[in-house]
Design brief:
The complex is a heterodimer of chains A (about 120) and B (about 110). By secondary structure, chain A is mainly β. Chain A contains no helices and 11 strands. In chain A, the strands form 2 sheets. In chain A, strands 2, 4, 5, 6, 9, 10 and 11 form a 7-stranded mixed β-sheet that branches. A 4-stranded antiparallel β-sheet of chain A has the order 1-3-8-7, with no helix packed on it. Chain A is globular. Chain B has about 110 residues and is an all-beta fold. The chains are: A mainly beta (about 120), B mainly beta (about 110).
């Protein structure tokens, strides 16, 4: 089945460490997104990419960077992790050719803990 | 004012009842509206999409959209304990933010036997 995968699924790291979260998809979608979810705050957009050469900041991009290595791969990096980046991170994809809905489909998530 | 607002709940309904989940949004240019279901510790799962005023039905789920009132709702008929989850409302605006979704904080639904 066409799918969205995220690695790692769980990660515990220490303050100041660099960490990369990876997302891959076999859906053939052109658009990819990174969100974080915190209790009571819903899903907040970190970065999004409409194609390999188009990367944009979301509402909470400070402290994060991304790389779109290929249409199917979108990585999120924390250059120097801090405890308030402890959260559940989701990758999502959508297909701009799918018409008006442009529905987004989510990966299974990465639970990140920064000590 | 938050861009997308939901009552955080929890909303508790008995099995077999109708659960009604509500969402309001602030951007009149919003074009598409989505409901996601999220079980604890899992990823959001898309259950309904709507972009025209009125009702859209899919099985036990009905999405209702009223653009004039900037209001979208989700009805779940014959609620089952397996429907217990957090329901997220998401709104896609037009213009330069095309493709981006803004999410509400979610409503926790509990269906008790």
């Amino acid at each position: 089945d066409a799918d969205v995968t995220q690695t790692p699924r769980n990660r515990i790291t220490k303050t100041g460490k660099r960490i990369m979260l990876e997302c891959s998809q076999t859906k053939g979608h052109d658009r990819m997104y990174w969100y974080r979810q915190d209790p009571g705050l819903g899903l907040r957009l970190i970065y999004y990419s409409f194609d390999v050469k188009d990367i944009n900041k979301g509402e909470i991009s400070d402290g994060y960077s991304v790389s779109r290595q290929a249409q199917a791969k979108f990585s999120l990096s924390l250059e120097s992790a801090i405890p308030n980046q402890t959260a559940l991170y989701f990758c999502a994809t959508s297909d701009s050719r799918a018409g008006g809905y442009n529905e987004q489909f989510f990966g299974p998530g990465t639970r990140l803990t920064v000590l | 004012q938050k861009e997308v607002e939901q009552n955080s709940g929890p909303l508790s309904v008995p099995e077999g009842a109708i659960a009604s989940l509500n969402c309001t949004y602030s951007d009149r240019g919003s074009q598409s509206f989505f409901w996601y279901r999220q079980y604890s510790g899992k990823s959001p799962e898309l259950i309904m999409s709507i972009y025209s005023n009125g009702d859209k039905e899919d099985g036990r789920f009905t999405a209702q959209l009223n653009k004039a009132s900037q209001y979208v709702s989700l009805l779940i008929r014959d609620s089952q304990p397996s429907d217990s989850a957090t329901y997220l409302c998401a709104v896609r605006s037009g213009g330069t933010s095309y493709g981006k979704l803004t999410f509400g904080q979610g409503t926790i639904l509990t269906v008790h036997p």
